[in-house]
């Protein structure tokens, strides 16, 4: 018997972990996940966009518009920052981060400071905005590579049905 063909690539696997992490987000409009991977293809951190620990997500706003303090923006931690903060306690120098959405300028600062050397993203839907331009300028200046994930698959189905194993 030969080995199974058509298995997913490392990029597809780690982006899949980032997308699965995003399913934990309580944000009703945007769910983003991130996964940090060592140079030996070991997952060393994961996160999703949400409130800091100890903040009850039923007590904070999820609105996108309105007075600043009545929106989600001053309270939500982005997936990339959460993945960095949730790492297993190792130095992240030389690691890669997979993220569903190209990182904002604030997350790019944390990525650079943590020593992560490559960003792999699925969507760059805010390309051309000032935060995205600032992000790319900083990543370029710091020598952090970034690229859009290349995938041969468009979706992956997960089943919790024992009969599917």
Number of continuous helical runs: 4
Major sheet attributes:
5 strands, mixed
Overall, the morphology is globular
Distance between the termini: 19 Å
Output mean pLDDT. 96
Total beta-strand segments: 5
| Strand content range | 15-25%
How do the strands line up in the largest sheet? 2-1-3-4-5
Describe this structure in words.
With 165 residues, the protein is an alpha/beta fold. Helix content is 26%, strand content 16%. The protein has a five-stranded mixed β-sheet, with helices on both faces. β3 (96-101), α3 (105-114) and β4 (118-123) form a beta-alpha-beta unit. α3 (105-114) packs parallel to α4 (130-142).
Structural descriptors:
alpha/beta; 26% helix; 4 helices; 165 residues
Brief write-up:
Strand 3, helix 3 (105-114) and strand 4 (118-123) form a beta-alpha-beta unit.
Q: What's the arrangement of secondary structure elements?
A:
Layout: H1 10-22, E1 33-37, E2 43-48, H2 79-85, E3 96-101, H3 105-114, E4 118-123, H4 130-142, E5 145-148
Parallel strand pairs: 3-4, 4-5
Antiparallel strand pairs: 1-2, 1-3
């Amino acid at each position: 018997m030969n080995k199974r063909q058509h298995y997913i690539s490392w990029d597809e696997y780690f982006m899949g972990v980032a997308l699965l992490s995003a399913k934990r987000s309580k944000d009703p409009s945007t769910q983003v996940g991130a996964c940090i991977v060592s140079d030996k293809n070991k997952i060393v951190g994961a996160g999703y966009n949400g409130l800091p620990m100890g903040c009850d997500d039923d007590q904070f706003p999820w609105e996108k518009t309105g007075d600043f303090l009545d929106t989600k923006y001053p309270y939500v931690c982005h997936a990339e920052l959460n993945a960095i903060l949730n790492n297993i306690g190792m130095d992240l120098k030389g690691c890669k981060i997979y993220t569903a959405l190209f990182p904002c300028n604030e997350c790019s600062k944390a990525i650079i400071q943590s020593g992560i050397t490559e960003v792999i993203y699925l969507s760059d839907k805010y390309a051309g905005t000032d935060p995205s331009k600032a992000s790319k300028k900083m990543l370029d200046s710091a020598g952090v590579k970034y690229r859009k994930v290349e995938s041969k698959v468009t979706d992956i189905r997960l089943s919790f049905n024992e009969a599917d194993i």
